[in-house]
């Protein structure tokens, strides 16, 4: 297969971790006979330094022309970096928001996996961590409360604030379809999370999700109220496969789920639109405190590259090969500093990438 990949290395540790993900992709291409081409794109602080703005129209157009975009992280130290002396709309993070909007990325995917080798980092009780978990949180990203009308007005001498929560059938249907498609590639279970006992938008959410489910008879659908889901994530996370939910609930639940894995350098993510296109990036930031030291954990970015192969190119076998290689490296006791524990062997960013490559093929 020919793959045209846009690459945004970004700021801080971004270039270091993206280089390792590209190394792993090259290894996959070599072993499985694919052809990769990379277009380097500037976004965030790196773009401000060259272009004066965090995202140019040309970069957005080039991203649109790619089959998928692999990204590191963007941003710097807000206290010391000159990027944060600029007005908010010119800062690195504004570039990311414009990119997501420009690419119409309405579905955010965040896996939360507890590897048995890293269960020591899991803050949950030992008997829960022992069972491990592997879930995918699918969050609607462009609708709901965060995008509704808002106002703060004085009424009868008192300030009153309002935020509107709106979802259309169409917005729910397109994310639900995406959620069921993802479940078909996994353990075929969808937990749709809402607050249907209170909110109209949640009642519509539930109705539309049930309609979409009819087209996926192999997938088991269950509904769960968001307050219960927040509890179940710490009580019995192993029960979840795909959690499908709206914007604000997903914002909160995906952070909760990533906290229970205990290791930020391991968390991949993807944002998808209606086509096969996706933006793939680690969940963590640009870690300016360790940038340039060669110690950042590249695994989240490498796992994001695996997601890209799975969801943008339907290369499940190749994605499995990367994920299995990551597990083997962990089983062999190799760790970057952020996931280091007693008795393990500490290695740097490049060596982690090399070791993962050595287990592919
Ligand atoms: P951060 O995630 O960059 O760092 C938090 C802590 O985790 C730091 O101690 C860091 O060293 C560590 N860490 C993060 N990723 C790591 C990795 N791969 N390997 C080893 N250790 C890792 O969060 P922050 O310090 O709050 O933010 C730094 C910058 O990143 C800010 O400018 C912020 O806006 C930006 N940011 C960008 C994104 C993105 O690009 N999507 C996301 C979050 C934060």
Structure description:
The protein has helices at 14-32, 45-51, 57-65, 92-102, 126-131, 169-184, 200-213, 226-235, 247-261, 299-311, 316-331, 349-358, and strands at residues 2-10, 35-41, 68-73, 107-114, 133-140, 150-155, 158-163, 189-194, 220-225, 242-245, 268-272, 278-282, 334-335, 345-346. It has 361 residues and is α/β, with parallel strands linked by helices. It folds into 2 domains: 1-108 and 264-361, Isopropylmalate Dehydrogenase, CATH 3.40.718; 123-260, Isopropylmalate Dehydrogenase, CATH 3.40.718. The strands form 3 sheets. It has a 10-stranded mixed sheet with strand order 2-1-3-12-11-4-5-10-8-9, sandwiched between helices. The two termini are 17 Å apart. Residues 13, 17, 73-76, 78, 93, 96, 264-265, 281, 284-290, 296-297, 300, 338 line the site of nicotinamide-adenine-dinucleotide.
């Amino acid at each position: 297969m020919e793959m045209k990949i846009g690459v945004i290395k970004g700021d801080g540790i971004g270039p270091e971790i993206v280089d390792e993900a590209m190394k792993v992709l090259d290894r996959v291409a070599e072993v499985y006979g694919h052809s990769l081409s990379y277009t380097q794109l500037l976004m965030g602080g790196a773009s401000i330094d060259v272009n004066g703005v965090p995202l140019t129209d040309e970069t957005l157009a080039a991203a649109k022309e790619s089959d998928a975009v692999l990204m590191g992280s963007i941003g710097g130290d807000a206290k010391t970096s000159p990027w944060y002396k600029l007005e908010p709309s010119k800062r690195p993070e504004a570039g990311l928001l414009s990119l997501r909007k420009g690419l119409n990325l309405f579905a955010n995917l965040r896996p939360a996996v507890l590897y048995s080798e890293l269960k020591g980092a899991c803050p949950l009780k030992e008997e829960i961590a022992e069972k491990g978990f592997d879930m995918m949180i699918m969050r609607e990203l462009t609708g709901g409360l965060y995008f509704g009308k808002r106002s703060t007005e004085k009424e009868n001498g008192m300030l009153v604030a309002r935020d509107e929560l709106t979802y259309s059938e169409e917005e729910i249907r397109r994310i639900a379809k995406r959620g069921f498609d993802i479940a078909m590639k996994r353990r075929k279970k969808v937990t749709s999370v809402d607050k249907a006992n209170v909110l109209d938008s949640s009642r519509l959410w539930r109705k539309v999700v049930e309609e979409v489910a009819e087209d996926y008879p192999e997938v088991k659908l269950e509904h769960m109220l968001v307050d219960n889901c927040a509890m179940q994530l710490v009580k019995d996370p192993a029960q979840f496969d795909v959690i499908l939910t709206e914007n604000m609930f997903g914002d909160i639940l995906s952070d909760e789920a990533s906290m229970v894995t205990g290791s930020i350098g391991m968390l991949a993510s993807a944002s998808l639109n209606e086509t096969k296109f996706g933006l793939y990036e680690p969940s963590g930031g640009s870690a300016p405190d360790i940038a340039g030291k060669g110690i950042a954990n590249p695994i989240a970015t490498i796992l994001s590259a695996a997601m890209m192969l799975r969801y943008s190119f339907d290369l499940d076998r190749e994605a499995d090969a990367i994920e299995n290689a990551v597990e083997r490296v962990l089983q062999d006791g190799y760790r970057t500093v952020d996931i280091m524990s007693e008795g393990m062997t500490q290695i740097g960013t490049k060596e982690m990438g090399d070791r993962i490559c050595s287990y592919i093929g």
